[in-house]
Amino acid sequence: MSGQRAAAEPYATRFETEVTAIDGRRVWLERSHFYGASGGQPADRGTIGDVEVVDVRLVDGEQVHELAAEPSLRTGRSVLCSIDWSFRMYCMRAHTASHVLYGAARRLLEDVSYAGFEIGEDEETVRLGLETSSPVDDETLLELDRLVNRTVWESRSVSWDDVPVAEARERDDVTFDETTADDAVQKGRVRLVTIGGKDENGNANGSSRLRGGFTVGGGGDPWDVSACGGTHVRNTREIGPVTILGGSCADDITQIELAVGPRAIEHRTAEKRAAFAATRTLETNVDAVPDELERVADDGTDRRRPVRRGGGNAE
């Protein structure tokens, strides 16, 4: 399981603890709720005392907090720490969204396996790497987008617990690559993050206990169960707006790029603006745009309206 308190208690953002060591701008704490950069998720932001935290790294299993300036702290003294909630919540939403996307990919693609992920520190994009024999074309991207947003809408529970490594290896429903999931393994146990299933009415409901002691959403098969040491929201509805931006393939790895939150909203707005422009230019409704574009391309006609030099459309 993850040794980071942030993964176990992702909603905790203010805490008081003792300073155990200081080396220039580097600080060690007796107890830390800061997330140290690991597994594709960036480090938390925030403050220790009144000094900004610019990085948090795991060194020999301990969190090392790098500050923007040398602090006026003393070892053995208590200090008040605060985590930037906005960035923490963004990472929680983005990380959970990547698990939802992987669950969708397993349902659409052949021979798919996890090949890493990355949350951009600029809060612009999230990338999920996949190894698959299936081509990821535009229709596949659209279906992935639909499934991800459907899962967000269904308000599926998200939970985490740990099981013995040997048990995780034996389970077909668990995504567990020991070469990339070292941040989720500790003392012979692995931390599993589960996005729950739905009840017989197609709705997410309360939790239930499955073998191994971990909790999932109510009846039905879980959407995704993955070894992971990162921070997550408690329910898929907390992810908010998600949109698939595109996909690319290099060195046999397919990279799916998605946006979460404000960037997703901006992208959807741009897409809708383009769709509205297409309907006006082609004089058709949005559902008929693809067929109309194909028809125009096939017969060589140009349905675009002439534009006056003044910029207005000619009547």
UniProtKB/TrEMBL annotation:
- Please indicate which superkingdom the organism of origin belongs to: Archaea
Q: Biological process GO terms, please? A: alanyl-tRNA aminoacylation
Q: Which Pfam families match?
A: tRNA-synt_2c, tRNA_SAD
Instruction: Using the record's annotation, list all stretches that form the Alanyl-transfer RNA synthetases family profile domain.
Output: 1-270
Q: What are the top taxonomic ranks of the organism?
A: Archaea, Methanobacteriati, Methanobacteriota, Stenosarchaea group, Halobacteria
> What is this protein's name?
Threonyl/alanyl tRNA synthetase SAD
Composition skew (Basic and acidic residues), residue ranges: 292-304
Per UniProt, what is one GO molecular function of this protein?
Answer: tRNA binding
Does the record's keyword annotation contain Transcription regulation? no
> What does the similarity note say?
Belongs to the class-II aminoacyl-tRNA synthetase family.
InterPro entries attached to this UniProt entry: Ala-tRNA-synth_IIc_core, Ala-tRNA-synth_IIc_N, Ala-tRNA_ligase, Thr/Ala-tRNA-synth_IIc_edit, Transl_B-barrel_sf, tRNA_SAD
Keywords annotated in UniProt: Aminoacyl-tRNA synthetase, ATP-binding, Ligase, Nucleotide-binding, Protein biosynthesis, RNA-binding, tRNA-binding, Zinc
- Spell out the residue ranges making up region: Disordered: 291-315
Q: Does the keyword NAD apply?
A: no
